[in-house]
Amino acid sequence: MALEGVPGVTGLAFDLGKRELRVLHEGPVEPIAARLGELGLGARLLATATASTAPREAVATAGNDDAREAGVLRWLLGINAVMFVVEIGAGWLAQSTGLIADSLDMFADAAVYGLALFAVGRHAAHKLRAARLSGWLQLLLALGAMAEVARRLVFGSEPEPRLMTGVALVALAANVTCLALLARHREGGAHMKASWIFSTNDVLANLGVIAAGLLVAWTGSPYPDLVIGAAIALLVLNGARRILKLRA
Question: Which domains does the chain have, with CATH numbers?
Fold first, then answer.
């Protein structure tokens, strides 16, 4: 972002372990060094090289990172789309607001990963716009989940705890897999940070549904399911808030 608008910059390659940045550019190095110096991070010029001697791996590394991000996001999109279908069906059969809220969260996540996939390899501003759009979508679905909790509170429900717990365990395994896939990319652009936030929320929501199923079985009351459904909706709302506060 500091180098945005500097003419001639064509590529960046970061080595976080060495705290080094390689900038591929045309023209003088002084404007680039000045912009990085303004960040106050102790930047200093280590070396320069002409096009004939500069290493070529920088651009390839950036391309490989984009390809890896895209591959991870395709898996996440597929996992969440499948789990949305499974959970929404099981939620209606089990009359579980917890499962229904979690299924809407899965749907939002699938949309998030699709938007993040669109943002891979694009400018930071595109990635931030994709993240914010996913945050608004998460906000809308959280409000829908809260409306469903209110409806079932008024009209009543008889949640089936075994189905609730079994499906929630499957969803938990799916979301832990998503977190494992995202672990290496969670400090990437805003689109990847958003994906990490959503998947973390999903794991917490799954644990909540499992707890609700056990409490419904123990007490014979539908209220634990309603409470967890409302809690998941609030968790999703908080995730939306965090996404909308992201910076590139």
Answer: 9-55 (no CATH), 62-244 (1.20.1510)
The stretches in the chain having pLDDT less than 70 are: 16, 51-66, 116, 119-128, 130-131, 185-192, 194, 246-248
| Residues 205/153, Cβ–Cβ less than 8 Å | no
Q: At what angle do helices 124-155 and 97-119 cross, to 10 degrees?
A: 170
Find all residues with CB under 8 Å of 52, minimum gap 6, and list them. Answer: none
Neighbours of 45 (CB within 10 A): 11
For residues 20, 35, 59, 131, the Cα torsion angle rounded to the nearest 10 degrees is 100
C-alpha count within 13 angstroms, C-beta hemisphere, residue 173: 5
The CA dihedral of 178, 184, 187, 191, to the nearest 10 degrees, is -40
Q: Count the neighbouring beta carbons within 10 Å of the beta carbon of residue 13.
A: 17
Cβ-Cβ contacts under 8 Å for 9 (sequence gap 6 or more)? 3, 23, 24, 25, 32
Read off the pLDDT of residues 15-54 as tens digits, 9 standing for 90 and up. Answer: 767 778 888 888 888 888 888 888 777 888 888 877 655 4
Spatial separation of the C-alpha atoms in residues 241 and 173, rounded to whole Å? 26
Residue 231, classed as helix, strand or coil, is helix
Residue closest to 139 by CA, chosen among 234, 245, 247, 228: 234
H/E/C letters for each residue in 121-166? CCCHHHHHHHHHHHHHHHHHHHHHHHHHHHHHHHHCCCCCHHHHHH
